[in-house]
TrEMBL record:
It comes from the Bacteria. Its main location: membrane. It comes from Falsiroseomonas selenitidurans. The keyword Transmembrane helix applies. This is Sterol desaturase family protein. PANTHER family: STEROL DESATURASE. InterPro entries: Fatty_acid_hydroxylase, Sterol_Desaturase_Related. It holds the Pfam family FA_hydroxylase. The chain crosses the membrane at residues 12-29, 50-70, 82-104, 145-169. The keyword Nucleus does not apply. Keywords: Membrane, Transmembrane, Transmembrane helix.
Length: 281
């Protein structure tokens, strides 16, 4: 695994670029919703923010999570080594537990007003498509990385599991944010395991009860297990309003306004104190 570390950025970049291109083509051919704003207005900022995020992460955390996992492995630190788990079992369990951490972290960013001010930039996109899966404030990315590093060390997650998880997380974020129409039967089967575009789109509704549901990025089980699952938006996917009431001005789609958004006025939180109260079924 030490030999892989120098190539880790490329190993993440190649599947990321491939899935981004695939989802962009797929949603253009079979869109779920009619976009309210053209790609040329949104995509430069959404793609620009991921370049900025990547630069900031590499400057602050040069070895990222995989490097920290290698260091922890060398010391035999963490829950999984303490339990005597190794090999494929440790890899699979580490991926599952890291996914749970991301689910809980997502809920935390909705529940704590200061963290919501960072996270709400992601929700302020007035359309949701594959590039929305890239749209996170650099400060949120740094806080998220600190949480991830703490989880990696606490779990003693194998470095290969961390690399696979990061590839998987990027891929599923691109997939479930895509403005992609899946056949209803396929969506119904897939969401028993994975978060689908229709499932996650509910989370981007302007309605607070819907915003505070469907927090998962990868596995659908966590929302069902913790009671935050909502099958469909009340207004339907074609009729629902996306984004936030506080940021409806198309000028807020510009990169400069996105970066200063945490400092601006408006509601501080769609806090987790608002119960999702999902309907039966």
């Amino acid at each position: 695994m030490n030999a892989i570390l120098p190539h880790e950025p490329l190993l993440r970049l190649l599947p990321f670029a491939a899935i981004l291109a695939l989802m962009a083509v797929a949603e253009a051919l079979s869109p779920r919703r009619r976009p309210q704003h053209p790609r040329w207005r949104r995509w430069p900022s959404n793609l620009g923010i991921v370049l900025l995020d990547t630069l900031v992460l590499r400057l602050v955390f040069p070895t990222a999570a995989v490097g920290v996992a290698l260091a922890a492995e060398a010391q035999g630190a963490g829950l999984l080594p303490w339990l005597g788990l190794a090999g494929p079992a440790a890899v699979v369990l580490a991926i599952l537990l890291l996914d749970l951490v991301i689910y809980l972290q997502h809920r935390l960013f909705h529940a704590v007003p200061l963290l919501w001010r960072l996270h709400r930039m992601h929700h302020a996109d007035l359309d949701v498509d594959v590039t929305t899966g890239l749209r996170f404030h650099p400060l949120e990315i740094l806080v998220s990385m600190l949480i991830k590093l703490a989880a990696v060390v606490a779990l003693g997650a194998p470095a290969v599991a961390v690399l696979l998880f990061e590839i998987l997380l990027n891929a599923t974020s691109l997939f479930n944010h895509a403005n992609l129409r899946l056949p209803e039967g396929l969506d119904r089967v897939l969401r028993r395991v994975l978060v689908t575009p229709d499932m996650h789109r509910v989370h981007h509704s302007v309605v607070p009860q819907e915003t505070n549901s469907n927090f998962g990025f990868n596995l659908a089980a966590w929302d069902r297990l913790f009671g935050t699952y909502r099958a469909q938006p009340a207004a339907g996917h074609a009729g629902m309003t996306l984004g936030l009431d506080a940021f409806r001005d198309p000028r807020d789609l510009r990169l400069d306004r996105m970066l200063v958004q945490p400092l601006r006025g408006g509601p501080a939180s769609f806090s987790g104190r608002t119960s999702p109260a999902p309907p039966p079924g």
